[in-house]
């Protein structure tokens, strides 16, 4: 059996063992994988000259109604697990319009090592390009240990819509340890650099100043040179038991950031959709 086939079998065995008390099987050194998407504009439509699947990432072209391109990411094995090093590198060249989504939620699981897994998403948009990163949620399962990083490089005239949703634990379980950083640069200058951390051993992550008992958290970033921005933050559903969100302008450019917390994934998505509707009316 080839090493790749053996790895897939190991991951399948792990998925079946998660509900039991036994230690999961898996690759002892973790998976190293980098998937690449490159979109280019040919004068009429956006094409995909590079679509490179790797490791747990299977990339698939999806139909669109116009001149843009759309790519779906399908999980080919259980990932990320402890010790994995996973990267997705996405580039929308000048004037290209690209949307990237995922077929299902990403599930961070405990692995054969206590070392953290890393999941790096690198997004680049050229002049007059449009890039939409709209994956399904990331679920931080009990016992998992994940470091997730978004690194975004935008040209001055690029447009970006980025949605990030995180579910802290599955039903009736505590979350794993999740550290997530979002770093955005526009025209070579910093636009946003923030880090969040949830789950033990982080202090106070579930307290009233952070999540206040909620288990779904997310943010939505909209960057558009043609967009007007608010002068003051806007609170959405303040004091509601179904969660709340705040929509704020960023000082470094024509950009709005929505941050939301909610008890469930569906309530979180509704809040982020509501925040986007507010942003697009500006």
From TrEMBL:
Complex and partners: UreD, UreF and UreG form a complex that acts as a GTP-hydrolysis-dependent molecular chaperone, activating the urease apoprotein by helping to assemble the nickel containing metallocenter of UreC. The UreE protein probably delivers the nickel.
Database matches in InterPro entries: UreD
Gene Ontology molecular function, alphabetical: nickel cation binding
This protein's UniProt keywords: Chaperone, Cytoplasm, Nickel insertion
Protein task: Required for maturation of urease via the functional incorporation of the urease nickel metallocenter.
Pfam families: UreD
Compartment(s) where it occurs, according to its Swiss-Prot or TrEMBL record: Cytoplasm
Major location (coarse): cytoplasm
Gene symbol of the encoding locus: ureD
GO CC annotation: cytoplasm
Name used for this protein in its record: Urease accessory protein UreD
Record-stated family: Belongs to the UreD family.
């Amino acid at each position: 059996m080839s090493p790749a086939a053996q790895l897939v079998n190991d991951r399948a065995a792990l998925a079946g063992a998660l509900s039991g008390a036994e230690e999961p099987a898996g690759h002892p050194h973790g998976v190293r994988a980098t998937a690449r998407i490159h979109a280019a504009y040919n004068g009429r439509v956006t094409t995909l000259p590079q679509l490179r699947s790797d490791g747990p990432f299977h990339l698939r072209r999806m139909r669109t109604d116009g001149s843009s391109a759309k790519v779906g990411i399908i999980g080919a094995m259980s990932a990320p697990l402890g010790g994995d090093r996973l990267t997705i590198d996405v580039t929308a060249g000048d004037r290209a319009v690209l949307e990237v989504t995922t077929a299902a939620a990403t599930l961070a699981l405990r692995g054969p090592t206590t070392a953290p897994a890393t999941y790096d998403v690198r997004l680049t948009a050229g002049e007059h390009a449009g890039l939409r990163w709209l994956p399904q949620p990331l679920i931080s399962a009990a016992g998992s240990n994940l470091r997730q990083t978004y690194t975004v490089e935008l040209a001055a005239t690029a447009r970006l819509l980025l949605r990030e949703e995180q579910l802290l634990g599955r039903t009736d379980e505590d979350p794993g340890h999740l550290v997530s950083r979002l770093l955005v640069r526009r025209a070579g200058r910093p636009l946003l650099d923030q880090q969040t951390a949830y789950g033990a051993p982080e202090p106070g992550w579930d307290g009233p100043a952070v999540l206040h008992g909620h288990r779904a958290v997310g943010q939505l970033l909209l960057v558009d040179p043609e967009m007007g921005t608010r002068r003051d933050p806007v609170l959405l559903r303040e004091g509601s038991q179904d969660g709340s969100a705040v929509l704020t302008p960023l000082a470094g450019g024509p950009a709005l950031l929505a941050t939301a917390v909610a008890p469930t994934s569906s309530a979180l998505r509704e809040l982020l959709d509501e925040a986007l509707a507010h942003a697009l009316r500006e």
